[in-house]
Amino acid sequence: MRSSTTRPPSTAERLLLGAIGLASFLGLWWGMSASGLVAKQFLPTPLDVLARTQYLLTEPFAGATLPEHLARSLERYAYGFLLAAGVGVPLGLLMGWFRWLDAMVTPVFDGLRFIAPIAWVPFAALWFGTGIGGPIMIIFSGAFPPCLINAYRGARFVDAKYIEAARMLGTGSLRTILEVLLPASFPAIVAGLRIGAGLGWQSLVGAELIVASAGVGYMMVQGQSNISTPTVVAGMVAIGLVGLVIDVFLRQIEAFVRHRRGLA
Amino acid sequence: MQTSRDWIGTATVASLLALWAVLTMVTGTIDTLRFPSPVQFWQSLKQIATTGYADGTLLSHSLHSLKLVIMGFTVAAAVGIPLGLLMGWSRRAEALINPVFLLVRPIPPLAWIPLAILWLGLGDAAKIMVIFFAAFVPSVINTFTGVRGIEPNVIEAARMLGTGRWRLAREVLVPAAAPMIFTGLRLSLQASWTTLVAAELVGALAGLGRVLNVAQQDIYPAMVMVGMAAVGAWGWATTRVLAVVEARAMPWLAVRA
Amino acid sequence: MSAIEFDNVGRLFERDGRSFPALDGVDLTVADKEFVALVGPSGCGKTTCLRMAAGFEAPSSGRVLVGGAPVPGPGPDRAVVFQQFALFPWKTVADNVAFGLRNKGMAAPERRDRIAAIIKLMGLDGYETAFPHQLSGGMQQRVAIARAYVLDPQVLLMDEPFGALDAQTRVVMQEELVRIARINPRTVLFITHAVEEAVYLADRVAVMTQRPGRIKEVLDVRAIRAAENWDRHARVEDVMDLESFVHLRTHIWRSLREEKVGGER
To answer: What is the rounded distance in angstroms from the CA atom of residue A255 to the CA atom of residue A260?
Structure first.
């Protein structure tokens, strides 16, 4: 009832305003390219993009069809993200539990934190090549920090009363970590995984633009060098859609976890 | 407690540095063609600082990158914060703009790079465009969230006191949302650096990303490392500057400590 | 003249497409310079009454008049003191108090005098440059009252202003409010849960029914206060010990209790 905003519009008005917003965006895009205000070569109409996407679904470009490129991207992504989660979450939990480990890792982590994940590309290419290893490393470097930080914060700031209760019941270290620390910090971990998944997906795109020899990012770079703008935009749409699906999926999980915990 | 923590940290960093030196220079366990030794790093740093590398010195590359980050970041903040304020305050503005935002937002900023190059070439304009797309989103979202999170009582108090629209925005909405606005700016700044480095790696005529790119092609690991260190140092320095600005801008939070 | 009049006021709330009556036919008049306390069971809509007088909400039926005219919207002629203080955390005590005056476009020298006077009156001297969070709850509420009083409003609307304070601070603030109200009488609508507080402070106490809220009865405290000479006691606790006070309080308690038992859905 009370909020910090102006009075909310009715549902009908809301939908109308949203439709106006979307229509003006698409209209502006369409108008600018259809009228020739911007050369079609540089700004294809939404219809051109749709047609191109349809073409790319079946016909190969840059060595593969769009679904094949996507499959390659997703394969790398899955490995990189799982690696980041598999290392980041346990390390974060342990850092939250063992102060000495926290004291050891934090300065190293802080030192590396400000290096953009993408800046690892040259080393990634040098060490693991441009096939699958290099991109995996970049995805890892993008997705790792949120996984680690959230697990760490979740474990470090677990309400002391849970730990004390476990102690009082005579629980050992390992069981306390597994049965108290892990579940207590679970919502924070899931939130970290979601953020990490987003950043990992971003990093994948970056990696594929720079070093890969297949994948959606690679397809886009090829589109760019062939001045095929529809291919580039189709790639953007595909990346956006897949990213959106991943995000929505993980948000559902996060909401479920929070709901189960009575947090939201 | 704090001192023992500092000691462990210092000892860890020192041993890692020592290990690095030993493995690359004494035992040769790490191939210096893949990972440089400390001495190689130092020599490359000296080289790029004095004679230069990839058509410029460390300073000129750094300043070039810094200039682009500042320009893209500033434009993004200058557009993003007011837009976030507007969408946070007016439910109608939110209903109008949010669907477009939802449509464009899932596209990662880095995915704009090929389009930016197609439109604007390999020069500065394309970089500023992608930095803008990267830095814009966190500014808008966090400002929006900040405004929506304001205590309704505080807004009502201002309205009860007969506050006009302009003063309400400047003296109530902005300061009340300031902590979130700065969170957004910090994320924007981080995104600006990431995007710039990626854009320069894809293709650039100058800048730290170009140093990385050329060093990669030359298979010159020590120079790659210098480039990475420079990116990290500038990222750290600009974040510090923002933190100082943040503390200055919100004096009422500083007194709490 | 600045009386507050509730004329057969009803208010509906929409939730999940259904509407619920929160208020149903509220009739109440707060005369000029009169202090009326409104008590009632939780959720009976007493805060809604105050918010309508403030102009934050509009009645669904009936009329809310202030000074004979319908309430146009929030404004500095009807200052509100909130339970949670609602100070601006980024402004110092002096700037919080000055905020409303600046909206009025008052010249700086006059503004300074007014602020200095109210800060002294509220016992806030020495805290002018402090930020709200550096003050105790009681001091914060003093600032909020000063922020309202400094505007010299016709009408003061207080929504459980002492509800967030501890018991001792609350007593001090009640005595302060009585002192200030004597120096500077205003038309006051005062919402509270605390029956003693209502009886101690108010000229009249209005008791509301369970939701949908109506005015159940109005008790005139003035006559009893004058007859029993409550004002010879400076302290709250001494007044509260008087037989006439206890009698009134018990009467209101019974009245409220009937509501809680009888009105349970």
So the answer is: 8
Alpha-carbon gap, residue A62 to B252, rounded angstroms: 57
Chain B neighbors of A236, CB-CB under 8 A = 107, 111-112, 115
pLDDT confidence tier of residue A198, bands split at 50, 70 and 90: very high
Residue C172 vs residue A219, higher pLDDT: A219
Residues 6+ apart with CB under 8 A from C156: C78, C79, C81, C148, C149, C186, C187, C188, C189
On whether the CB atoms of residues A87 and A143 are closer than 8 A, the answer is no
Per DSSP bridges, beta strands C4-15 and C18-30 are antiparallel
Q: Summarize pLDDT for C226-235 with one digit per residue, the tens.
A: 888 887 887 8
For the CA atoms of A61, A65, A68, A73, what is the dihedral angle to 10 degrees? 40
pLDDT band (50, 70, 90) for residue A3: low
Q: What percent of chain A has pLDDT over 70?
A: 97
Burial C62-98 (b: 16+ CB within 10 A, else e): bebebbeeebeebbbbbbbbbbbbbbbbbbbbbbbbb
Contact list in A for residue B239 (CB cut-off 8 A) is 114
CB B139 within 8 A of CB B188: yes
Q: Which portions of chain B are predicted below pLDDT 50?
A: 257
Chain A residue numbers touching B235 (CB-CB < 8 A): 114-116
Q: What is the mean pLDDT of chain B?
A: 91
- Cα separations in angstroms, B196 against A119, B132, B239, C189: 10, 10, 15, 60
Complex ipTM over 0.90: no
Domain A44-260 has CATH 2.30.30.280: no
Cβ neighbors of C129 (< 8 A, separation 6 or more) are C92, C93, C94
**Do B12 and A9 lie within an 8 Å CB cutoff?**
no
C-proximal residues of B, 50-109, CB under 8 Å: none
For chain B, how far is it from start to end, CA to CA, in angstroms?
Answer: 20
User: Which residue in B13, B110, B155, B217 has the most chain A C-beta atoms within 10 A of its own C-beta, making it the best mutation to test that interface?
Assistant: B110
- Look up tokens 């102690």; give the residue: A167
User: Can you say how many angstroms the Cα of residue A18 is from the centroid of all Cα atoms in its chain?
Assistant: 26
Count residue pairs from B and C with Cβ separation < 8 A: 70
Instruction: Identify the residue among B2, B8, B137 best suited for mutation to test binding to A, counting A beta carbons within 10 A and taking the highest.
Output: B8
- What does the pLDDT read at residue A229? 92
Topology at the third CATH level for domain C4-77+155-262: Rossmann fold (3.40.50)
Positions of chain C with pLDDT under 50: 262-265
Identify whether the C-beta of residue C155 lies closer than 8 Å to the C-beta of residue C79.
yes
* Interface touch B91/A209, C-beta < 8 Å: no
Distances (CA, A) of A214 to A78, A140, A205, A233, B201: 16, 18, 11, 17, 18
Burial of B164 (0-12, 13-18, 19+ CB in 10 A): exposed
Mean pLDDT of A114-124: 89
Any chain C CB within 8 A of the CB of B18? no
Q: Is the pLDDT of residue A11 over 90?
A: no
Q: How far apart are CA B23 and CA B111, in angstroms?
A: 39
Interface mutation target, options B113, B131, B145, B225, chain A, most CBs of A under 10 Å: B113
| Separation CA C161–CA B147 (nearest Å) | 26
What is the reported pLDDT for A4? 54
Contacts of A14 in chain B (CB under 8 A): 91, 95
CATH 3.40.50.300 residue window(s) in chain C: 4-77+155-262
Nearest CA in chain A to B111: A236
Chain C residues interacting with chain B (CB cutoff of 8 angstroms): 54, 56, 73-76, 78-80, 82, 84, 86-91, 99-100, 102-104, 131, 133-134, 147, 151
- Residues B180 and B159: their CA atoms lie apart, in Å, by 22
Residue range B33-249, CATH number: 1.10.3720.10
